[in-house]
Design goal:
alpha+beta, five-stranded antiparallel beta sheet, three-stranded antiparallel beta sheet, elongated
Length: about 725
């Protein structure tokens, strides 16, 4: 120790021995402490702390840099001072005694630790042998036993070390230095034991958290690096300062140690950058919403963490009043808030899964309930996740110096919160209204599975209800956020009026279609006649009806052009059959045959299921020129009348042929008049084929006669009338 230091210590001893001087020293020290306490009260004002940060950062160039520069400038003097102290026999004696004491204590403590490990080795092997277990409780128990086995050697080391230190007579400073070394060893090994319990790099079967073996081993290696560097560096520097290290050198080396730890942290962050980013991104799916935000955070998370490490270092290096404590408290609370938010989110997700999972009985009774519930489950999950994230963000902002909850308690905040709640209520009410309408539509569809009217009207009504509901909700939301909706309503009215004038035909078609569909006049599958078009209804929209005729042509007819509709397949139909018989037939017999054929078709045949009532004989419908018109009819199911009619005509033809009942050709009566005596002249009927053949033979005979006469001599001409009369008499029939 130098002479100046001895003089200072002697002056301090004299001051403490003098009551008046000691009181003045205490008063002076109290005046130095009280302003600092007033500047950093227990409830740290964040605004004052932030202003302190700004002032400290502004004075950084004049404080830390100048201090470091001064230390570097006085470094040769400090080294010389250290060398002078080492040349002092008392200092060398004290250091040697300290090293010998530390060596003796460490040898004894390490021997005790080694013996304890040897004694506990069988138990350790037994735990490792039973490490393969799928039950979490079993793994937790075995892990606890393994941790105890790791801690017991440390306890043995500490007990022997502190016991020997208590028995050895040393000076106060050497005792403090030895305690610093022992505490460094015990604390570092305790931290490593806790890290081994969490990571379990040697026994993967006991690991409670899902982690790859490589990641666990890598994390454990870095844990030991940080522990040894921080713990041993701090305690060794403290021990060196207690022995003979100057305070300026101690501060300088402490800054270097902190800078080394910060650099190691940055290197570790950069090495695990890719692995953590992969965990944050999750599965490779199209990122939307929260997943996109998570992917963006995965790209720059390391920058935020490195900035945090740098901020911690500067807070510690600048020695901000209360800064390091605030930073530590805020960091701890932030981690706790994030973990709590994660736990709440996982618990809520499991609760949702439990609530929205139906048992077999409920699923059987209400087949559409689970599908409807699962329809909203993804949305509810997103809303819950967003709410938890929003609350967590507000809590983090409050922790780090913001005042969001104070703002919500203010009049502006309450007003904004009230509007947000009103908007949420409007959204929930609109969703409930839409769900009630959907349930009503689904029940109608289930009660009428084959109704084409419902299949046409329900989508239109649902779309109209959706548009109205969405319009009302949007207008209310706009009104809540302060938008004047009166001009919007006026503009919508003007636009609607203009559209109404410009689309009169379209509106007419739609309104007529709604009435036709509401009255259930036509349905898909009906056979109808609309104006000059007829055919099978293939499709009905809100504006047109589509008909397919017998030739396969498709007709699209707007409802506005429909004046009358003839539906030939509504509820039931009549197959009206008309049969004609000759005047010479017995009418009753013909009607009986018709009834017999009709009854046979009702009782047996391929169309018996189509006929829904007995055959009805109408009777004689009229007397035609050549036949007697008979009529009957069948009552059939819709669209079955034509097949029934065809089958009846096939059967009645066969039955009339079997009974000899004539289905006549058309007849014509020719009146030739009478002579004066009242007698009708005879009607000569000539067979056209016979007459043609006789005329051809006569012409051939005349030609031969002419050639013979020409050869024989002069020709005697016969009167043509006599020849014609003679031919006529030969073919005459009276």
């Amino acid at each position: 120790m130098s002479s100046e230091q001895r003089k200072d210590l002697q002056a301090l001893i004299d001051t403490l021995n003098n009551d008046q001087a000691r009181g003045e020293l205490i008063a002076r020290l109290r005046t130095l402490v009280e302003p600092q306490n007033n500047a950093t009260p227990q409830s740290t004002d964040r605004k004052d702390w932030l202003s302190g940060v700004a002032e400290s950062l502004g004075a950084f160039s004049t404080s830390v840099i100048l201090v470091l520069a001064g230390e570097m400038e006085h470094l040769p003097d400090q080294i010389q001072t250290i060398l002078q102290n080492l040349s002092d026999p008392a200092v060398i004696n004290r250091i040697g005694w300290m090293l010998a004491t530390i060596a003796a204590i460490l040898v004894a403590a390490l021997l005790a630790e080694w013996l304890t490990k040897r004694l506990l080795a069988p138990f350790r092997r037994a735990v490792e042998a039973r490490s393969i277990s799928n039950r979490l409780v079993d793994r937790g128990v075995l892990l606890g036993i393994g941790t105890v086995l790791d801690v017991l050697p440390i306890v043995a080391f500490a007990a022997v070390a502190f016991g020997i230190l208590a028995l050895v007579e040393t000076s106060f400073l050497i005792r403090l230095a030895v305690l610093a070394v022992i505490n460094a060893i015990v604390l570092s090994r305790a931290i490593i034991a806790i890290g081994r319990m969490v990571l379990v790099p040697d026994i993967p079967g006991l690991r409670l958290f899902p982690m790859k073996d490589e990641s666990a081993a890598y994390s454990f290696v870095w844990l030991k690096r940080f522990t040894y560097t921080a713990v041993y560096g701090y305690f060794l520097l403290h021990a060196a300062w207690l022995l003979a290290l100057p305070y300026a050198a101690y501060v300088f080396l402490s800054h270097l140690l902190a800078l080394l730890i910060a650099g190691m942290s940055i290197v570790f962050i950069l090495q695990i950058r890719g692995a953590v980013a992969g965990k944050l991104r999750g599965p490779e799916v199209p990122a939307v919403g929260f997943a996109r935000l998570r992917n963006q955070a995965a790209d720059f998370w390391h920058i935020l963490v490195i900035a945090y490490v740098v901020a911690v270092y500067f807070v510690w290096a600048l020695n901000l009043p209360g800064g390091f404590a605030f930073l530590a408290r805020a960091s701890f609370l932030s981690v706790l808030a994030v973990i709590l938010a994660r736990v709440v989110m996982l618990g809520a997700m499991r609760l949702f899964d439990t609530i929205f999972t139906l048992n077999d009985e409920t699923r059987r009774r209400y087949p559409l309930l689970e599908a409807r519930a699962n329809r909203y489950l993804p949305g509810l999950r997103k809303v819950l996740r967003g709410a938890v994230i929003a609350v967590c963000a507000l809590v983090l902002l409050q922790i780090w110096g913001g005042e969001p909850f104070q703002w919500f308690a203010s009049p502006n905040g309450q007003h904004t919160l009230g509007r947000l709640i009103s908007i949420a209520i409007v959204g929930v009410a609109a969703l409930v209204a839409w769900e009630v309408g959907t349930i009503f539509a689904e029940r109608l569809a289930l009660r009428n599975p084959g109704s084409s009217r419902l299949s046409t009207l329900l989508p239109f009504l649902q779309n109209a209800f959706r548009v109205v509901l969405l319009t009302i909700a949007v207008l209310i939301v706009l009104s809540e956020i302060g938008v004047n909706i009166a001009p919007l309503l006026a503009g919508a009215g003007v636009v609607g009026l203009a559209v109404g004038f410009g689309a009169q035909t379209l509106v007419k078609d739609i309104i007529t279609g709604i009435f036709i569909l509401t009255e259930n006049t036509i349905s898909v599958g009906d056979v109808i006649e609309v104006g000059s078009h007829s055919g099978l209804v293939e499709k009905i929209s809100i504006r047109t009806v589509h008909l397919r005729d017998f030739d396969g042509n498709l007709h699209s007819i707007p409802f506005g052009e429909v004046q009358t509709v003839k539906n030939m397949s509504k509820l039931f139909a009549y197959a009206v059959v008309d049969v004609t018989v000759s005047y010479r037939e017995n009418i009753d017999e013909a009607l009986a045959v018709m009834a017999e054929v009709g009854n046979d078709m009702v009782k047996d045949g391929p169309l018996a299921s189509t006929i829904i009532a007995p055959f009805e004989v109408i009777g004689v419908e009229g007397l035609q020129d050549s036949a007697v018109w008979l009529r009957g009819r069948f009552k059939t199911r819709p669209l079955g009348q034509w097949n029934v009619k065809r089958e009846f005509y096939r059967r009645i033809k066969a039955a009339f042929d079997a009974r000899g009942i004539e289905i006549p050709f058309p007849h014509r009566t020719i009146y030739l008049g009478t002579d004066k005596k009242g007698s009708a002249p005879p009607l000569h009927v000539v067979n056209q084929n016979t007459a043609t053949g006789q005329r051809r033979d006569a012409e051939t005979k005349a030609a031969k006669t002419a050639r013979a006469a020409k050869a024989a001599g002069p020709v005697v001409e016969e009167h043509p009338g006599a020849r014609e009369h003679s031919e006529a008499n030969e073919d005459e029939l009276t």
